[in-house]
Amino acid sequence: VANVSFREHDLVRGAVFNKFALVLCRNVMIYFNQPLQNQVLKLLHESLFKYGYLIIGSKESLIWCEISNKFIVVNNEEKIYKKIKD
Fold first, then answer.
1. pLDDT, tens only, 41-70
2. Alpha-carbon distance values, 23 to 33, 35, 82 (Å)
3. What is the C-alpha to C-alpha distance for residues 22 and 80, in angstroms, rounded to an integer?
4. 82 within 8 A of 55, measured Cβ to Cβ
5. 36 close to 12: Cβ distance less than 8 angstroms
6. DSSP helix, strand, coil percent of the chain (3-state; round to 5)
7. Sequence-ordered list of residues with C-beta below 8 angstroms from that of 33, at least 6 positions apart, any chain
8. How crowded is residue 29: how many other Cβ atoms within 10 Å of its Cβ?
9. Chain centroid to CA 80
């Protein structure tokens, strides 16, 4: 598929390397402590275009993190969020 690219990225040590319309990060952050989760969520936020989508795992949430007000919930059951602020 011409418009899709798959990339491997180190969420702990990596930096923003591109902007994406969709980021899937499912069932990874459940293994991180809260400060690391917050760091990763900031990185994912910076990696999304405005109005891009972030999909996380069913046991994960953005509610408590520092950037929670920069997303809206599209589907809470499926954990789909839309970036609304840079």
1. 999 999 999 999 999 999 999 998 999 999
2. 21, 20, 10
3. 10
4. no
5. yes
6. 20, 30, 50
7. none
8. 22
9. 9
Provide the CA 15 distance to its chain's centre, in angstroms: 13
* Whether 86 contacts 46, CB under 8 Å: no
Query: Beta strands 48-56 and 80-83: pairing type?
Result: antiparallel
Nearest to 38 by CA among 62, 4, 6: 62
Say what percent of the chain tops pLDDT 70: 99
**pTM of the entire structure?**
0.89
Q: What angle (nearest 5°) sits at the alpha carbon of residue 82, between those of residues 19 and 63?
A: 115
Nearest residue to 32 (alpha-carbon basis) of 47, 46, 13, 45: 13
CB 26 within 8 Å of CB 57: yes
Left, alpha or beta for 54 (phi > 0: left; psi -120 to 50: alpha)?
Answer: beta
